[in-house]
Amino acid sequence: MNHARFLRSIAVLVLSVVVAGALPACTATVVDRRPPIPSRPATLPEPPTSPPAAEVWPKAVFTLPTRLGKGLDVDPVAMLSEHEALMVTTFAMRLRFLAYDRRTQRHRVLATAPAWSECDLCFEIRSVAVGEKQIVWTAGVYRSERWNQGLRHVELWSMPRSGGRMKLMTWLTGHYDAFPLQDTLTVDGDQVTWRGEGASYRIPLSGGKPQRIDETPAPPVRLPDTDTRSMMCGVEWCVSQLMPDVHELTTVVIQRRDGSGRTTVPASMNSPLIHDRFGLFSPPYVEGDVVRRAGSSALLYDRCTATTARIGTRYEVEGSETVQQGSPGQKPPILFWKDRGGRYVVVDLSRIPDRPCRS
After folding, report:
1. pTM of the full predicted structure?
2. How many other C-beta atoms are found inside a 10 Å radius of the C-beta of residue 250?
3. Residue 246: pLDDT above 80?
């Protein structure tokens, strides 16, 4: 054996061979050069306590039923007015849009899906947008024609805001196009804009052929000097999460694309700001601490007032109800979740004053 080669090998690995009968047994010892994990301090950072959203913005928080009429399960979609909510059936084979009046606690059917859609996944609502005169939505559509071979595509539909017949406006994807997992829909004046995965179109509300939109590249983002995770940006504002050390409190960073206006918020699980203003975050926790303290399932942060409020149900042994976002549009959307009493708690973001942002 080459003696020099043996000395170089033993600096990395110590190998001892033990002969037991006819079978050799080997044990290896590897030197671990990673820094040791700090021991758990006697006192960990305490996450700040935020008041519930109903105390911070009482005019923006209210409840809605989860069932209407003869047991119709519904989800809220958007607010048609201060007191009237747009809702959609969730488990009915033939989908319906309904308007629910919070004052009278009565509802009315605005529109019902066509008869051919009465089958599983034949008419799946994806995105909804509310305009001044019309309600538009995208639907994942499957029709059981023999030639269809089980392929689905995306269609754009509309109906009068006051209610009436559903109308097919156009196809957005074909049978053999990639079926987008997500899409967004907004109404701007007399046009509707659809953004799928890899394609964007603008369609006149009066009808017509979709016009492809050539998206302009977003301005570059100036990254923070500190270590961050997955920065995500809206039009002007970006969100990222700092990489905490062990036994430190998790923190989210909010800044403009150019790096200005930087602020930190005790939170976790970042996502882009809603309308470049509201942050829907998970509560902060201590990195490396296996004990999660009781608290709400989510936090709502308002960039305009630097205010954080507690939303969602409180953590329980079996988990908590997820906070969902209503349909986007020209106005900030609603957020909603089920409370323990079986009703939806709704936060109407459009009713939170924006005066500090405009000044």
Report:
1. 0.81
2. 23
3. no
